[in-house]
Amino acid sequence: QVQLVESGGGLVQPGGSLRVSCAASGILFSVYALGWYRQAPGKEREFVARLITDGTTNYADSVKGRFTISRDNAKNTVYLQMNRLKLEDTAVYYCNAHVGQSDYWGQGIQVTVSS
Question: Which residues are bridge partners to 95 per DSSP?
Fold first, then answer.
């Protein structure tokens, strides 16, 4: 059974930092491209960051220079380090693992940026 479980969300002030994690089980983690997406209230789910197996990363323009995606294959975990957070970063954050026709999602975790 495949599971992706996010953790580390919460409430943070504008300008602060937060790291969310996503632990995977039931897949050969090292062969998957990993990504983070987010969905704010009343909006569509949007791409945030992606890390493929050769180390290439891609970021949405809105988070470039502030967020960093990384992976630890020994721990089957992908991370999203979020710095200089803004009010508009408030959303439910979802991790994604993809290879070929296999596509898996976590349940999502809330990140709220508020003063």
Answer: 36
